[in-house]
Specification:
By secondary structure, the protein is mostly helical. It is built from six helices and three strands. The chain has helices at 4-19, 36-60, 69-79, 109-119, 121-124, 130-150; strands spanning 87-89, 94-96, 164-165. Strand 1 and strand 2 (94-96) form a beta hairpin.
């Protein structure tokens, strides 16, 4: 089964995220909108990211320390191009580079918000917002794809995501042969 079970979990979380667009338009004008639903999503996505980062690190470097986000950053930036990857939500003309802060040696602000919402929700509830959820789900999308590549899995990652993609122009199916993930170094 390999990555398939993680892909299915990602698709369920992406569907939950997509459903929020019925109430809050996906627009930079609404990025600060926060809610209980965004808190629920941010916590679920952050937890799944933690699981998949640990797994991916163990696959790409079995000797790597992989106990927390700092360890994941060291391992994954040494072995992948994830920090430069962009995820698109074409339907809303939005683009996210959820792991770009890793190129600067720091952790993403959405990850910091995830931890604040997880541990101090009473004082950081507004960080459970559209922008942080969009970055988190984009980050999960990428880490599932990198894990799939690292596993050298032959499992099909279908169905395709309803919102997220990586190509600027529609035309080729998301995960067919034209779909490119930077090679591991």
């Amino acid at each position: 089964m390999g990555t398939y079970r993680y892909w299915q979990h990602f698709l369920a979380l992406e569907a939950d995220f997509a459903a929020t667009s019925r109430y809050v338009e996906f627009s930079p004008l609404n990025f600060a909108a926060f809610s209980v639903e965004y808190a629920k999503l941010l916590l679920a996505v952050g937890s799944e990211i933690d699981v998949l980062c640990k797994l991916t690190c163990k696959i790409v470097d079995s000797s790597a320390k992989c106990e927390n986000i700092d360890d994941y950053r060291a391992c994954l930036t040494a072995h992948t191009e994830i920090a430069s990857e962009e995820v698109l939500i074409r339907r809303y003309n939005l683009a996210f580079k959820p792991w770009s802060d890793w190129a600067l040696g720091k952790n993403p602000s959405w990850w910091q918000s995830y931890n604040k919402v997880k541990h101090e929700r009473d004082s950081h509830f507004p960080e459970a917002n559209l922008e942080n959820c969009a970055n988190a789900i984009s980050g999960l999308f990428l880490i599932v794809l990198y894990c799939h590549k690292a596993e050298k899995s032959t499992d099909s990652l279908k169905p395709y995501p309803m919102l997220l993609g990586r190509e600027k122009e529609p035309g080729s199916l998301l995960l067919e042969s034209g779909y490119y993930i930077s090679a591991f170094t």
